[in-house]
């Protein structure tokens, strides 16, 4: 048991108390935001902003630039989603205008080109960051830095995949599409062992919770879709 606990939490012995507290706060608000999203509660966005802003700072300090980019994107898309969901609520009929009532939709064929472009752009951007990682880690100096795709590890390639999945999921979520939960489930499940490997146990446990909530939320959004009024609102 002692060896297991050391494997899970041993890396935190070298962390400052501030970093540990910030990670725990970010995890708490992250889980809260996913629970709010499952209930189509618009507070998902302001609560989520707290989590993503903290993770942007932590991931920059940890030099996990792919993950940092994800959370920076989350921050921007949370603002977009907040506006989108707010406008959608205003367009609801009075009799269905509840505090957490936001009209949800299924994925449309017209969304696929946008998702494809987003995935390609995301993976290319993250690959570029990792290609120049030796320069970034060298204080943004090319002196003595060795570049090449051959330096990529399986973690880097996995980061590219999960980054693309997360960004597509966030865009679909901001657009109120049910299928975003499927992408969350896949990306969250992949992220669990990935963050354990990286040594961020609290964040890995967060993704375990995220995966379970996302599975339940997918069916919950399906239920809400079936019972919502059939009239369409932009």
UniProtKB/TrEMBL annotation:
<feature type="transmembrane region" description="Helical">
    <location>
        <begin position="152"/>
        <end position="174"/>
    </location>
</feature>
<protein>
    <recommendedName>
        <fullName>Nicotinamide riboside transporter PnuC</fullName>
    </recommendedName>
</protein>
<dbReference type="Pfam" id="PF04973">
    <property type="entry name" value="NMN_transporter"/>
</dbReference>
<feature type="transmembrane region" description="Helical">
    <location>
        <begin position="68"/>
        <end position="85"/>
    </location>
</feature>
<feature type="transmembrane region" description="Helical">
    <location>
        <begin position="204"/>
        <end position="221"/>
    </location>
</feature>
<dbReference type="GO" id="GO:0034257">
    <property type="term" value="F:nicotinamide riboside transmembrane transporter activity"/>
</dbReference>
<comment type="similarity">
    <text>Belongs to the nicotinamide ribonucleoside (NR) uptake permease (TC 4.B.1) family.</text>
</comment>
<dbReference type="InterPro" id="IPR006419">
    <property type="entry name" value="NMN_transpt_PnuC"/>
</dbReference>
<keyword id="KW-1003">Cell membrane</keyword>
<keyword id="KW-1133">Transmembrane helix</keyword>
<feature type="transmembrane region" description="Helical">
    <location>
        <begin position="112"/>
        <end position="132"/>
    </location>
</feature>
<feature type="transmembrane region" description="Helical">
    <location>
        <begin position="15"/>
        <end position="36"/>
    </location>
</feature>
<feature type="transmembrane region" description="Helical">
    <location>
        <begin position="181"/>
        <end position="198"/>
    </location>
</feature>
<keyword id="KW-0812">Transmembrane</keyword>
<keyword id="KW-0472">Membrane</keyword>
<comment type="function">
    <text>Required for nicotinamide riboside transport across the inner membrane.</text>
</comment>
<dbReference type="GO" id="GO:0005886">
    <property type="term" value="C:plasma membrane"/>
</dbReference>
<feature type="transmembrane region" description="Helical">
    <location>
        <begin position="43"/>
        <end position="62"/>
    </location>
</feature>
<keyword id="KW-0813">Transport</keyword>
